[in-house]
Fold NnrU domain-containing protein.
Amino acid sequence: MDSTLPFSNAMLATLRSPVGIVVGWSAFAGSHMVMSHPSNREKLINTLGEKPFLAAYSIIAFATFVPTTLIYARYGAGKGTKFWSGSSRFVRAAGWSTKVLGAISFTQAISTPSPAAAAGKSSLEREAEGEVEESNAVEPKGIQRVTRHGLFFGVALLGIGQLMTRGRLGDILYWGGYPVFWFIGSAHQDYRQRKTLPASFYEKTSLIPFQAIVQGRNSWKEASKEMNWQIAGMTVVGALFVL
């Protein structure tokens, strides 16, 4: 039994270091991708049912993300090689502003119904049935005109805002995971939902924020009309209390 102790100690030493953050992010992202992959998702829904699947999905996400955050807080925050300081007033103001924009994107995404839900069925039901509807019910609205994945983008901006003022290796590995997961998660979600949402929705929207608007495929004027500016204002005011 003693022969296993060096191996166990080595594993603990790895987790109690910035490398543990990478391991945690890999576990979180990997489990997310495996469970949400169309074929795996459908099998799990058919076996477990929709609500149990969602519960299992949430539990696994919680069980991988929370330990990653705890590892960062204990062993990574402000530790490791310093690549930049981010201590100037300008950088700190830019970082705060970026995080506020992320919070606005996040709350706008939550307050805007998903295209699948607006079509009258849950995304899980639509995927399980392989259903694609060309319907006005999946017309992009609000933040969806800016980016298809406002929630993911909001989280990415949170990470970028933190990176501006936290330049040590442990901070970079943890907060850098947010924008990386935004891109990977958004691309994977596009791959999955293209089987259930009409092509017209993708023709009018973009994964990269503002790309569809810049290319003339959508309108900022329409997006701004549909935004919930009351929630946006509450988000900014709330952020002022934590300055």
User: Anything to note?
Assistant: Residues 1-76 form one domain.
